[in-house]
Amino acid sequence: MANSNREYHFWVYILSSRSRTLYVGITNKLLTRTSQHKEHRTGTFTACYNIDRLVYFQYFRYVCNAIVREKELKRYTRKQKIELIERTNPTWEDLYDEIRRPFVQPEGQQILCKDDKQERQGQQQRLTLAWI
Q: What's the whole-number mean pLDDT along residues 43-72?
């Protein structure tokens, strides 16, 4: 019997090369998937173009919402993707190390995510990983 209380986590992400070639993907394990891209497995698009810098990510609780967002980002023009990245990561820093170190409040409670409640078509609630 399936556990109905299980929480699911899905991520839509954008990777970039140093020359800013972009890749949009979806995963349920952002750290694992990003580290796989960093391994530069032969024959993959990301390895061929040296795309291994996590420059944008977005959290979703429901896979259907994540798939819709991934398709939306894949339809974006290059200019739109760059604008999206630069709104949250203007210096194009590799966010991989940031997501490996969750923010810890002084009293020791970990903050895993925060509401991003942006108005979008369909009133979709999105979550993003909090980092400081």
A: 95
